[in-house]
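Final report, closing paragraph on structural work. Over the funding period we assembled a curated collection of sequence-structure pairs, and we close with a single example.
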Amino acid sequence: MDVILEIKNLNKHFDGIYVSKNIILKIFKGSLTAIIGPNGAGKTSLFNLISGYIEKDSGKIYFQGMDISDKKPENIASMGIVRAFQVANFFPDETVYDNVLVASISLFKKSTNFLADKYSFKNIREHTDMILKNLNLFEKRDLKASELSHGDQKILDIAMALTLSPKVLLLDEPTAGMSPDERKSMVKVIKELHKKFNLTTLFIEHDMDVVFGIAEIIRVMVRGEIIAEGTAEEIRNNPMVIESYLGKEV
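Its predicted structure, as stored:
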């Protein structure tokens, strides 16, 4: 398998506390990978480092063989590493359709000044429709984003990320705060996107049912270090993971 994202000896600390400590990581193209660990383990900080939102102290991050360690978030996103956040980002007073449309415009290198005539852009409209249909939001396209359920708002955030046609999608706790039914819907969305687009997906999650249900590979972080990696079965039965995080065999 081809390595699409590689991290070599990545370090970051705040006031002497390491959030990333000698991280060595390879993510393979088309893989579905979970990052798990206790609160404060450094999971979101790792995403921040990959996506350029914080600067590393040392180490390297390579995307498709290119060093992106010191690139800005917007440059990293334009290259193909796109992130959906734990707290969904959208324009609450705009429709679902317009939220995704505005995000789609950036893919086609259009200025937002063209919004006055936005419906004349056939390619942008088609791209927007495709994204909405693939995330089961097309029937809700005329609703204001603020009118969506919490689960659908997080799916909308993913939809906006997908408009950039990412090669790697980073999802930070995609099921956080969701009801059981919403979690099922989100799990279905993640599975379908991964299968349909062969989309390399890296996600942070605390719900072990979600993790063990969909992740092909699981990495476990504790105190800024990756202490284990493997399949669901291997992680369930790893003594170090049980002691440091799971607390018992699950």
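The chain has a mean pLDDT of 89. The longest helix spans residues 180-197. We thank the funder for supporting this effort.
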